[in-house]
Amino acid sequence: FFQADDGIRDFCLSRGLGDVYKRQPIVISGSWFNILPKGGRTERHRHESSVISGAFYLDLPEGDFGKFFVVSPLQPYMMCVHNVRETPYGQYFYDVPIKEKHLYLFPSWLEHGSRTNNTEHDRWTVSFNTSACSQEMLDPNFVESVWGKGHEGS
Asked: Which residues of 113-139 are buried (b: 16+ CB within 10 A; e: fewer)?
């Protein structure tokens, strides 16, 4: 069993997002996997009805495997910015240096996608969304097994 709530809460607090879950239990509200074959990519998108999303890279082939990228949320506000030279602060797209068997967490509103996999092998990713959940909606035995005695209905 993977208990992600403290790690996700710490991530939010360290980024100045506050305690977005207000000490409510965090659940993985949806999960899926992607197998990105040669020539495959994911379009730019975001995750509605979620607060924090995650991607775990199971298997990355050697070479140009289709990097994960994020889109600057400042793009609409930078239409009058004229950079003399390119810097990371003026980029609209940023390629995230990903590693195999690493988990990446990001705010679900952040637009992202993946570049084209130009290798002969598949790239495997497991992803998920999270949501806050009222403890009353969870089985009391589950709540006790995860958070211990004394948290039932609190």
From this structure: bbbebebeebbbbebbbbbeeebeebe
Q: What is the CA radius of gyration of the chain?
A: 18
Q: How many CA atoms lie within 13 A of 7 on its CB side?
A: 12
Helix, coil or strand: residue 120: coil
pLDDT tens-digit map of 85-117: 777 777 888 899 899 999 999 999 999 999 999
Model pTM?
0.71
Distance CA 130, CA 29 (A): 5
Instruction: Identify the CA nearest to 34 among candidates 122, 98, 130.
Output: 122
75 compared with 154, residue with greater pLDDT: 75
Backbone φ and ψ of 82, nearest 5°: -120, 110
> First and final CA of the chain: distance in angstroms?
22
Q: Which amino acid would we find at residue 84?
A: V
